[in-house]
Amino acid sequence: MDLSAINKINNLPNFLPTKKFEELQLNKIYQITEIKKVNTKYGPKILGIVENEFSIFFPNRTNRMLIDDEEQLTSLIDLTSAGELHLNYFGTAYHNSSL
Q: pTM for the complete prediction?
């Protein structure tokens, strides 16, 4: 029996956990360390890697704008490379937080 196929699965790179915006702390500034354009079953999406700890999908309207405007996406990627892109979650009426 050849176990090489099973061993390949064990050697896959580790993936960062994905969080939802409502899981973020209110008014905390997070540094976005990487931005990726990924293909999902729902179409292309923009994924942000936050402080190399977890990933987060951008909101739909932001996602559509960045997918449609490649120059804007490139600008954000450049800011990320320079360590100058941050995220501050303020919450919304839809994301109630009782913390």
A: 0.74
